[in-house]
Amino acid sequence: MRLLLAVAYPFLAHAATLRQDGVLAALALFDVALIVLIAPLARRRGWAWTLLLVVGAGLALLAQSQHALLPLLLMPVTFVGLIAYLFGRTLLPGRVPLISKILAAIEGKAASALAPELQRYTRSLTLAWTVLLAALAVIDGLLALIAVPGGLLDSIGVVPPVTVSRVQWSWFANLLDYGIVGGFFVLEYLYRKRRFPGRYRNFLDFMRKMAALGPEFWRTLLH
Hints:
- The protein contains nine helices and no strands.
- By secondary structure, it is mainly alpha-helical.
- It is globular, with a radius of gyration of 20 Å.
């Protein structure tokens, strides 16, 4: 369910931007609230349902405001920047690189038991993901600053020296970001398949092995 909600967000946000629609913007932000709260909501935690009602009421008011679309400018920076941080912090001394953890789990062994070449590769790949995601977050932030009308600078009365339209910002931050990430994922798989042949039959086999790790693994991966 969380994955479906995450997939829905960029399309809701992009539609809200194209139509300049405060209601769609509020729905996109409510989608984010559901992503964050879905686990305690599923466990019927009273505080989560109360918080969701409060957020929903606040967003209903925001939908009628002239600033309803403003929070959408910050969401891509927050999403992508947070993921870059989660990748990057696993590169700190004494920690296991994120990709090393995933590969070790697929192979059913400790990360320290991976072959040295795989340890070096997975560490480099974790760094590559960190750099890519951090770069996307920076670009998203810069485009949000210079978008006109309604960008971060424009909303406080500052005229940017260089501008893009809100629609151009949305195409990049809400849609192209994910295309770049998906493209990097596929290209890296193709390169890895050639460098380390025989590990996966095909891309579907690789994805099946990833999925077979189970939701508990993915929930605890970043802890």
